[in-house]
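Worked example 2:
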Amino acid sequence: MRYETIAVDFDEGVTRVMLNRPERLNSFTVQMHEELADALTNIERSDEVRAVLLTGAGRGFCAGQDLSDSSVAPGSDRIDLGHAVETYYSPLVRRLAAMARPVVCAVNGVAAGAGANIAFACDIVMAARSAKFIQSFAHIGLIPDSGGTWVLPRLAGQARALGLALTGEPLSAEQAEAWGMIWKCVDDDVLESEATKLAKRLAAGPTRGLVATKRALRSTFERTLDDALSMERDLMRELGCSSDYQEGVTAFMEKRAPHFTGQ
């Protein structure tokens, strides 16, 4: 597929996916959804991609849904926002959360509506100091979608989640970091380099173990302590037979840097 609304490149095990409609603050259209879905399929099929970096072009990460798109215009005979959520946004969030690679999100400006919650769906979020997260649904009579009703209370707690969702007030990157909602807030001029460095570090790591860690932590709220202990046992049993574990221990004993293959 030829991409017009996203840009994709690959370097040192990392595929960078850039939302690329800067004139519309990278807001989503059906075309962007379809192109992004295709890019993620290619990533999932590749043996070379070991980490993903998601970011946006221009002065914003993503303003959510493009409200000028005829498919969501009020009064249209075809409007069905539930269809858009079920067909595009929910599958995207599920794929990011379950992807068998670490996913880093670099938020380079405003992340509003679905854009904010898609960022929160990634494994590690790094944001520019000027970035803002906005649950803008409150301004147009909707609810937080793209996993927002699930992720906000888990990241921010019930009181803060309700405050963000009901008021739609912008949340600065610095405050999001202070509240533990994102991994790190950095100066604007180093966001790209720091996020890329992080993604490449993860790509060079024992990705089989990293993905297992992601799987275990993401499912923790569904499990009792006993269930979690059993899962830890099973995953440790599996990973103990991996080439990366053998390499990691050998490198430690030999006092050298490990060379992981993700196997």
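The chain is about 45% helix and 15% strand. The domain at 207-253 is CATH 1.10.12 (Lyase 2-enoyl-coa Hydratase; Chain  A, domain 2).
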